[in-house]
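call fold(seq) -> tokens
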Amino acid sequence: MNNIVHGQHSLAWPAILLGLGLGGFIDGIVLHQILQWHHMVSEAYQPNTVGNLELNTLADGFFLLSTWILTVAGLALLYRASAGLRQRGSGRMLAGGALAGWGLFNLVEGLIDHQILGLHHVRPGANELLFDLGYLVLGAAMLTAGIWLYRRGPMRSSLLQHEDKTL
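ret:
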């Protein structure tokens, strides 16, 4: 158990929370604000009136607040686990965990908001299902790559430590 708390797994939750938070920021800033493809509840409340646009903007604000909270929680846990950052391979673990968290965000948000609840689509209109599916594929690829990178960190560091001891 001590190894999980203070060893190689001490970066898992901080990295995942950072990935979830930062992935949400990218979604909210790029898709909601810059490209303006959708808002948080634009499927149910088309932003074609001032009132509906205000409601969508409010929902976007609460969404971004939640991503900020996830990011701050990830940073707080990362600070607590900072002793583990001196381990070899920890940079890969942190990057992999953050990538996995971002991919997890895309999958959860894509399945729940886009498909199950139908709150909005990645890009409404022609080919909206293709954009939604592409978002899910991207999320699955990021999650898979992140897990691979995270798992590569401790394995590689153990190997390097073993090589150092034999020299």
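The CA atoms of residues 18 and 148 lie 17 Å apart.
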